[in-house]
Amino acid sequence: MLARNLAQHPECITTLQIQQSDRDAGKYPRSFFAGEIEMKLFGGDQAQDELVRPWRLNVTKERLLTAVNEVDRFCSWIEDALRRWPGQLEQSAT
Predict the structure, then answer these.
(1) Is the overall model pTM greater than 0.70, yes or no?
(2) Beta-bridge mates of residue 19
């Protein structure tokens, strides 16, 4: 969602590259959609992470599908937990 918002409403209109916003970089220092070049060069060094921020974002088909699948897995997990929840409340009350 954040990557789509940045593509539609970039902070800088002078480039065609999508970059992580400074605010998002503070909240999510290891972006799932970070560009491969940055991750290879600076991915393991937290001190250099600060120097190269904001990360360029690269939303590939594979990464997007992985993200969608992870969201789907999370939704399935939470739906299962919600289905079990009333029963757990009844058991703890007795």
Answers:
(1) no
(2) 56
